Amino acid sequence: MRFIFLAALLAAPALADDKPKDAKTPEGVAIPYKLTDTKHIHVRLKLNGKGPFNFILDTGAPAVFITKAVAKKAGLEEDKNGWAEFKTFEIEGGLSVDKARCRVADLFQLDGMNSMGIAGVELHGVIGYEMLARFRITYDFTADKLTFVPLKDFTPPALVAPKGSSTKSNSQGGMDMLGPVMKTLAGMMGIKPNFNVKTSGFLGAEFEESKDGLIV
């Protein structure tokens, strides 16, 4: 019994040292969010210095989608495959994403929700897998912020259209007609979306370098 007890005492420090002493948890960025009336996670973005715009996080969406109206405001231009690249993609809370791209499309889901005002806020786009997969995200619905930790050694695979299909073509299987249908129903039912809601403040300073100096 004495031998077993002594062996246990000798083994304990070795187990405690299994974890590297220099192990560090990467620091994340705290992103403020709110839940919409439909319980979607709502964050705010500035795109190419314009905004803020209202986006929802959706792991079921393959990429970032943005409405045509907002794309025009942000000065985005689509390429021949239907993609557009941002000069700056900034999520409220201090997270700036490099080499961000999106698909410009009026998704029937957002079109219908905005027509009836069921989310409680006008939605301008969706942040999907291709963007979300760049981060380790901590969801805590008892807190008012999400934690985004950049993943340095992982690049999510780019979305590729199936062979024989065009990225410009209608890929929603005719469901894009639901948006106009919901708009019509909202009008017939006398539903008018009310987006005059009070959100958290948006205050800060922006900097830009130019040939004439620094612009604040």
Task: Please describe the structure with a list of short key phrases separated by commas or semicolons.
three-stranded antiparallel beta sheet, alpha+beta, nine-stranded mixed beta sheet, globular, 216 residues, disordered N terminus, 21% helix, 25% strand
Can you characterise this structure?
With 216 residues, the chain is an alpha+beta fold. It has 5 helices and 14 strands. Strands 2, 3, 4, 5, 6, 7, 8, 9 and 10 form a 9-stranded mixed β-sheet that branches. A 3-stranded antiparallel β-sheet has the order 1-12-11, with no helix packed on it. The protein is globular and about 45 Å long. Mean pLDDT is 76; it is low at 1-25 and 162-191.
Order of helices and strands: HEEEEEHEEEEHEHEEHEE
In whole angstroms, how far apart are the ends?
Answer: 74 Å
Q: What is the number of strand segments?
A: 14
Strand content: 25-35%
Count of runs of 4 or more consecutive helical residues: 5
Largest sheet: 9 strands, mixed
Q: Could you write a compact summary of the structure shown?
A:
The protein has 216 residues and is of the alpha+beta class. It is built from 5 helices and 14 strands. The strands form 3 sheets. Strands 2, 3, 4, 5, 6, 7, 8, 9 and 10 form a 9-stranded mixed β-sheet that branches.
How are the secondary structure elements laid out?
Blueprint: H1 2-16, E1 29-32, E2 34-35, E3 41-47, E4 50-57, E5 65-66, H2 68-73, E6 83-85, E7 89-91, E8 95-96, E9 101-104, H3 108-116, E10 125-127, H4 129-132, E11 135-138, E12 145-150, H5 178-188, E13 208-210, E14 213-215
Parallel strand pairs: 4-10, 5-9
Antiparallel strand pairs: 1-12, 2-3, 3-4, 3-7, 5-10, 6-9, 7-8, 11-12, 13-14
Helix pairs in contact: 3-5
